[in-house]
Amino acid sequence: MAVLMSERRRPSARVTMGFLPPALEPYALVLPAMLVLAFFFAGPALYNIALSFQNVSLFDLGQSNQWVGFANFAAVLTGGGLAAAFFNTAVMQTLVTVVLRLVFGLGLAILLNAEVFKRWRLGWLVRSLVLVPFVTPPVVAVAAWKWLLDPRYGAVNQLLLSLGLIERGIPFLSRTSTVWGAIEAMLIWRELPFVIITFLAALQSIPKELKESARIDGASEFQIHMRIVLPMLKPVIAVVALLTTIWTFNNFVYVWLATRGGPGDYTQVLATKMYTVSFVDYRVGEGAAIGVLMSVIMFAFALGYLALLSRKGKGAT
Predict the structure, then answer these.
(1) 54 by DSSP, 3-state: which?
(2) pLDDT digits over 157-175, tens only?
(3) Core-most of 123, 137, 201, 217, by most CB within 10 Å?
(4) pLDDT, tens only, 255-286
């Protein structure tokens, strides 16, 4: 017995790679992943930064180009349309849709977490239906919405005409009073399931005992959600808000496929302006400068947002 106990207490021999000192082994194990990240992420980012300081055309890529310093940034900042594109990106495309997705996503997640779906074992069906927009490719989603909003044959206009609410079809995607509402509807419909599923998973991780004890103490459902559910969801809400803001700010697909920045430049966002400058006007250097500005804006926003959250967390503790 004493021999067995001594063998159990004996530390197991560490398995080493054999050709490296033990202190370098962790770095060697992480090195392949770091190389992959550098090749697929850091490499293109550094190349884009280099292009932003060069006078380069789309037809001059791969050749030696003239370095012009901050001339591309000066041309972009002093040129027309950047302020309007930034406002469309920050407010119309990002702020409005992120806020609505958080509100609708939280409300629908609370609704889908109701006991009735669990009692009738319909949770799997509800989650499957919620995921339908999210698994739909963005190109297909925008094409379907363009058909729905068609002024002549679209289902939305046909419904409004049959109800007598309008006398003629509304060109939702070519009228300035309706175009942003149509784009925001497309974006929210396609991206809302991610928020719902994330909040639903967070709701299901909250212990049932907390809610039951609150009900025993006489708390209403509204008080339970305000005093228990929402405070416990704050970390998840913070992460979802950050991710959706970054994804939406950099989004190119919905505006470009729906309106190509029109009518005129009314719905031009930074991503579509970068594409237009680079691949329509062939000024790749200025387009790269717009991309760098977008990255700087989002990096500063992420740092400020995380710093604010950490300050609030320290204040709460």
Answers:
(1) strand
(2) 999 999 988 889 999 999 9
(3) 123
(4) 999 999 989 899 999 999 999 999 988 889 99
Which pLDDT band holds residue 17 (cuts at 50, 70, 90)?
low
What pLDDT is stored for residue 8 in this prediction?
52
Question: Which one, of 101, 118, 113, lies nearest residue 203 by Cα?
Answer: 113
Structure tokens at 254: 């919905």
Gap between the Cα atoms of 249 and 92, Å rounded: 10
Domain boundaries, the chain: 55-312
The conformation of residue 172, written as its DSSP 8-state character, comes to T
The Cα 40–Cα 178 span in angstroms is: 39
Q: 49: closest CA among 75, 74, 67?
A: 67
CATH superfamily of 55-312: MetI-like (1.10.3720.10)
Helix, strand or coil for residue 55?
strand
Residue that the structure tokens 């006489």 belong to: 218
Would you tell me the crossing angle of helices 284-316 and 71-78 to the nearest 10 degrees?
A: 80
Contacts of 149 (CB under 8 A, 6+ apart): 156, 157, 172, 173, 182
Which amino acid appears at position 97 of this protein? Answer: T
> What is the pLDDT of the chain when averaged over all its residues?
86
Most confident of 178-192, 211-225, 294-308: 178-192
> CA 248, CA 231: separation in Å to the nearest integer?
26
Q: Is the pLDDT of residue 116 over 80?
A: no
Distance CA 232, CA 214 (A): 15
Q: What end-to-end distance do the CA atoms of the chain give, in Å? A: 50
Q: Cβ(161)–Cβ(170) under 8 Å?
A: no
Is the distance from CB of 72 to CB of 53 less than 8 angstroms? yes
CA 276, CA 283: separation in Å to the nearest integer? 9
What does the pLDDT look like over 95-105, one tens digit per residue?
A: 999 999 999 99
Q: How far apart are CA 157 and CA 166, in angstroms?
A: 8
